[in-house]
Amino acid sequence: xxxxxxxxxxxxxxxxxxxxxxxxxxxxxxxxxxxxxxxxxxxxxxxxxxxxxxxxxxxxxxxxxxxxxxxxxxxxxxxxxxxxxxxxxxxxxxxxxxxxxxxxxxxxxxxxxxxxxxxxxxxxxxxxxxxxxxxxxxxxxxxxxxxxxxxxxxxxxxxxxxxxxxxxxxxxxxxxxxx
Length: 179
Prior knowledge:
Layout: H1 2-7, H2 10-25, H3 27-30, E1 32-33, E2 36-37, H4 40-52, H5 54-72, H6 78-93, H7 102-126, H8 137-162
Antiparallel strand pairs: 1-2
Helix pairs in contact: 2-5, 4-5, 4-6, 4-7, 4-8, 5-6, 6-7, 7-8
């Protein structure tokens, strides 16, 4: 069992997630675009989904969401649901192309982050929070999605590394015999 944990992607995902959480709580808490805090951990969960598919995106999103809940003090699992959905949606969209270009992956990450951010108030309704809907929800989702698109060229390769995904190897085309 210990060997399985060592070989799993959690060995890389948890420390990188801790760094992302530290950046979220310090640097990105101060960087606000139109009064909206940029969600780098959510973008990383969506990037892991775009890099590794829906199953790996779900695992990464759930792990990062649990870590986020433990740091923020929210009920454990509430943010994990939204982050899991972000990873799953980005991973399902990545099925469109076998090896998507960087700009297509960026779109998948942005859409996954948008779904994850839109699910946060829905989850807050289920846990019984008062007034879970922000007054400008459309602006919040748009800013988070655009920020995820901008950060995706850095986060998708990082997610690929954390999930131990090797890129496709380029092979020279075989020479055809003379006709």
